[in-house]
Design brief:
By secondary structure, this protein is mainly alpha-helical. The protein is built from 4 helices and no strands. α1 (17-30) crosses α2.
């Protein structure tokens, strides 16, 4: 029997509009709300990520954030 899902933590988080649209689409497809979908993804992080692609994608994302910060004059 699966353990009951109990959401106990709330935290402020910023998310890109594209990321939030993808989260909503995933949640809708899975029949979950956004909080349940995030909990599922993080609880199962190792099995839902591609270990070989993750470092490369993370590096690209960090480079994009750095370029944006340099252009905005922030951080």
């Amino acid at each position: 029997m699966p353990r009951p899902q109990r959401l106990t933590r709330r935290f402020p988080a910023q998310m890109s509009e594209a990321g939030y649209r993808r989260l909503r689409r995933f949640a809708d497809e899975a029949g979950l709300d956004e909080g349940e979908a995030l909990s599922f993804l993080f609880e199962n992080f190792d099995s839902v990520t591609h270990r070989e692609n993750l470092p490369h994608r993370l590096r690209l994302h960090k480079e994009m954030l750095a370029a944006r910060s340099a252009n905005d004059g922030t951080r």
